[in-house]
Write a structure and sequence with these properties.
Structural class: alpha+beta
Number of domains: 2
Strand order of the largest sheet: 6-5-18-19-20
Helix content: 25-40%
Radius of gyration: 21 Å
Largest sheet: 5 strands, antiparallel
Number of strands: 21
Distance between the termini: 13 Å
Length: 408
Amino acid sequence: MEKVHIPERPGWREQAEELGFTFADMHGEPYWDETSAYAFTLQEIEDDIEDPSTELHAMCRDAVARILSSEALLKKLAIPEPHWALVAESWERQDPEIYGRFDLAYDGNGPAKLLEYNADTPTSLYESASFQWLWLEQQLEHGALQAGADQFNGIHEALVERFRTLFAEGTDIHFAAAADTPEDYGTVECMGWAAREAGMGAHYTDLEQIGISADGQFIDNEDRVIGTLFKLYPWEDLLRDDYAARIADAGCLMLEPAWKAVLSNKGLLAVLWEMFEGHPNLLPAFFEADISAALDGQGSAATDVETLFARSADGLATGYVRKPIFSREGASMSIVECGKTVEESSNATYAAHPKIIQAYHPLPVFDGFRPVVGAWVVGETCVGMGMREDRSRITQDLSRFKPHFIRK
């Protein structure tokens, strides 16, 4: 793995605008940045990213069953008790999942480490699935990349096949996102594009315009009944919304399904460590409430995690990250080294939520930037990846997206 400086394509910004990639620059800063790219070997991709991510997803599915069998864990993950049955029944029915994205720390030397799983509403889909593939094709045409260079990117094709596998041809699917949020619209349009290619009817609707019919069904702004809904609206918010009480009787298949509420929660990281301690792709992680006294040097961890914590205590003493169980784009996170906070997000939106403690694994540094690998899972298989980088040690909403390629 290395960072390679490559000339930008002439006119790419105009092309991005023409294609609807209107957020390539945001708030006066570049979001898409092709002044350089990350290069990988095929072995690095297959052995260190693709196969481990597929295995991690299988482990996460095992964790769903573990969490849903434990009232204590449901409480720790702050799943609202009135909706425990909704979540559990969606798992028992095996309501289908479409996609998710693992964020991994990786430097090309040894196993990638799971930082978190964006299992419910991950964005950066368009730039990962489409725009960076266009970059690869055009850079090959321009001779900026060696002939035969490739990219780990079967995301769009996998989405098409996933929709085709799950739904009969002609099935109507609604795709909903918040109005006036270009990145969210780009994500749902990318999903809709795949669904249309698979033979589905794909309809975009603003989240705020979804209503309830007289008989309790969800309807769009044209009064069409919504039978299948892909919503770019996280379950942690939806389960606290008035609409949550309507879901069970609305006759609407939700994508992602309600059981993803336990995977899009950072408490998952603590559950995974309890279930698969020592796995090469995991970092030690605990619920802060279980180990707060031990972290402060005032005693041992809670009885049920005492032995597990003891085996990780030395590493956590060196450095750890405090993460709210609900958090996006690095908000309300802090990094502690040797007992001192060395970096903290300026966005405190999620500060009031319960937190986990995860061992700190420094990101590699390339030209002053720290990259994170986003490994995309469609269905149950890792099918592609995207790269984000930031000067900060905490990847944030304006962190740059970087293309990648596989050397011949």
